[in-house]
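pasting for ref
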Amino acid sequence: MRAQQIFARAIFTARVLWGALTFSCVLLGVVTVIVPSPVSHPPEESFVAIFAAVGFALAIASFVLPARVYANNVALVRVEKVEPEPTPDGPGPARFAHPELAAGRAMGIATTSLILSMALSEAVGLLGLVLHMQGAPMTLSSAFIGAAVVLAAVRFPTVPRLVEPFERAKGASFAASEGGSY
């Protein structure tokens, strides 16, 4: 199986996961509209401030933590690469000696990182749902849920987005390995 086929299968799975987790963030908003808050008074300002701080920390962590996990996992992977032949235009990019094996590992690591980033994004929306159930105004809880949807939406998976960090870390290119692009 060629690396391109591995990418095609893995990107479909990644997009299904992305769609499901993004939709779950949207569903949090639907729940806050449909289900009334059981509490008649708004939560204390300190409670809201703590939730805002936690939500902000989760939003930052949804970028930082998956990137660290990705980098650590890529560092553990051993792949063979082949240095390019010298040409008059200079050396081309190195290629993977076993592109199928490298592609499978790259997509596995990227999918794990994607799931982690999506889960942390969804946690921001869950804070909004909790605030709603604690009597917070709809505008406040909607801000958390809206942030979760935006955080999820910006992570739409594409093959380049998922494998280019792997290529940079390993100093080789899938395109050079198979004579084309993703």
